[in-house]
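Mods, move this if it's the wrong board.
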Amino acid sequence: MNEKEKSDFLYTFGQLVKNQRILKGLTQDEVAEILEVSTNAIYLLEKGELDTKSTRFVPLIHILDIPYSSVQEPFLLFAAEPFEERLIEVMKRKENKRR
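Not the wrong board. Structure tokens:
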């Protein structure tokens, strides 16, 4: 995922969070309290300017009734890509040690 795709994903996800939050009648303060984060973090997340940690992603979509299926593919690309690159590096090093 390149920087534009990442930015697009964060913006789209942020708008989805904002819309669902409003639909459920929750304020940013209330969502922040539930997730034990700052209100500013929710504000930045909704603007697409903050990555949500994986540990907060599942509770966030749960409390806002966002179907995981609607965000699964882009989130996996977004969240897993850096780990995939490191996994490849580690496996290459491991293979080189065997030789």
